[in-house]
Each structure stands twice: as C-alpha cells, then as structure tokens.
Amino acid sequence: MRVVLEAASLSLSSGGLARYTAELARALAHQYPADEFILVSDQPFSLGRPAGQSLSPANLHTGGGPHNWLERRWWLWGLPSEARRLGADLIHGPDFAVPYLPLRPSVLTLHDLSPWLDAGWHHAARRVKRRTPVLLKLKIPTMVITVSEAVRRQAIARFHIHPDAIVAIPLAAAPWIRVERKPESQPPMRPYFLFVGTIEPRKNVPALVAAWREVRRECDIDLVLAGRRRADAPPLPSEPGLRILGEVPDSELAALYSGALAFVFPSLYEGFGLPVLEAMQCGACVIASPAVREAGGDAAVYADTRAELVKCMRIAATQPQWLAERRALSLARAQEFSWERTAHRTYEVYLEARRRFGR
Description:
Oligomer: single chain
Radius of gyration: 21 Å
Low-confidence stretches: none
Order of helices and strands: EHEEHEEHHEHEEHEEHEHEHEHHH
Shape: globular
Largest sheet: 7 strands, parallel
CATH superfamily of the largest domain: Glycogen Phosphorylase B
CATH architecture of the largest domain: 3-Layer(aba) Sandwich
Number of domains: 2
Mean pLDDT: 92
Structural class: alpha/beta
Number of helices: 12
Strand order of the largest sheet: 3-2-1-4-5-6-7
Strand content: 5-15%
Helix content: 25-40%
C-alpha cells in the first residue's frame, strides 16, 4: 500500500500536531516495510530527527507540493493531484482535513473539539471551524480517527458520524523521551514544578501560576514553563522563581521532565494530553486536570479546582515517599502505550477505509 500523509503540521516548530504526524509516520514505516509512506504539503516542512535517533526508514519519503497556480488550491486540486502523481492508495489527513473531492480512500484525524467548544480558546481556527464540520457532514473522509474515546463520543454527538466510521486510537510518548539522570558532576538544580505545552488560553496556565504562588509561601520551589507561546496567550508577568523558557529543543525535553519535582498540567480541555505521557515516561509525578484521564489513568493525580491543585502540589513538595510512589506509577503507565501500537491500529483503519471506499 502507498499512503500519502498531509504534512502541513510539520511546518510548526513544536506541538502535539507536529509530534503526532512525525511519530506516526516513522512508526508506520518501521512497522510496515513493504509499504510506502509519503509526506506531502503545500508548505515547507521538515520531519526532523531527534538527537541520537537513526535515519528515517527507506520507505518513508517526502513528496512535492503545488505544481501550478491551480494546485495552490491545495485541498481541492493540489493534494489530490499529488496523490495521483504518486499513485497513492489512500490519503491520511492528520490535522482535521482531507481533500474535498473523494477520489480515493481517505482518513481524517480529529484531535479534539476545542475549536467548536469555546471561542476564547482559539484566535486563528476559523478555517478549521468552517471546513471540518462540512467534510464530516458530507462524509468525505472514508474513516475518522480520534485520539481518545471521549473525543470519539463528542464527535459522534456533534457531527453525527456513524459509530462504525470513527475509531479512537491513543497516542504515546516518543521512544527518545525517557528517564535521563543528571550527571553527578553537574551542580544540583533548584527544585521545580514543570509545565510543558503550547502557552494558550485553554491550557489554564494562569491558574497554575496562582496555585504555585500559594505553595511557594511555604516551600521554596520554582515553576518552569516550557513551550511555544501562541499570539493569544495570557500575560505572564516576570517574578522570582517563575522561569519561562519558551520553546525547548526536543533534545532537552527528557532532562527537563526527568528533573521535575512534579509535572503539572491543569488544562481545561484536551483531546488526549500527550505531554502527560511524555512526563510519565521520564518517571515524573503527574498532577493534572481530569481532562487527561485517558492518558493519565490511575497513575496521575487529578485536581479539578485551584484548591485541589494547591493541595496536590503541596503534597508533592513535602512528602517524598508519596512522590516516589507516584513516579513508579507513572513509569508503569507509560509502558502501556507505544507508537508501534498506535501505528498498528492506524494501519487497520487504512485497510478498513480501502474496503469501504466506493461501496
């Protein structure tokens, strides 16, 4: 089978969409060496390669973009034309869209419903808000993938997708994000709580900062915020102990997760919550909102209010035995997920889409 994956999300320097596209493409190519997987986009993009990782598999390629002015209408003419030139058996749109004309089987990944749930969560999602519901209503994608069962249920209810045409497939932490011990020769760092993710309204970062301030009155612990800051991000004033790192290279993520006293993720809404699994795979205690239960399972500690968040962070700062137990649970939980499993289940959806197409 020859699969074309639309790769516009790889033009982003970081974030869950880019991680999903890159790790899924690599895992598919590794798991299915007899097939071909081709990344294409109308925007410049890079698959990248994390430090210490091998080259991409020989059956993972990059294709072209628009060949003329007409094909700049990418979803209408450009992507279908490139798929035809490449002899694609199927197109996977991993970022809320597929070609508008159903000329061959297609699979659309719907990561969450945040663009339709709260206008204040997105300042630049107008195209997605308009386009995706129309594609789903017209049944243009042959199959739909969501990253959690919760999103699957929400999508069925909101977009009236037939339950047989939508499948929930969880994500996983990248294999190169794992426990990294600090060399003994390096001086110890100040203890810190950690948040990793795009800084945007939905992530509820101001509530985290407020909770940390309360804990800091009793415990001398920093708060580290790592992630790309979106244009509509809430203001974060500078203050002692608050370290705003901005976007962090992939090569530094494992050390950041591994060294944290606890990873704190109070997001108001998530499709899955991939940073939670990344933190767990590095052995971090995870304190999170209930929005990430499918990722965190019984290993995370959930805080639904600011008072609960303060209480959990205070326990993490003052009870070493409790903290050690949570770290062990995190490592065990992370082992339940892998990109190999995600790729296998995604490939099954590809096969089902090919069986269904044109029936």
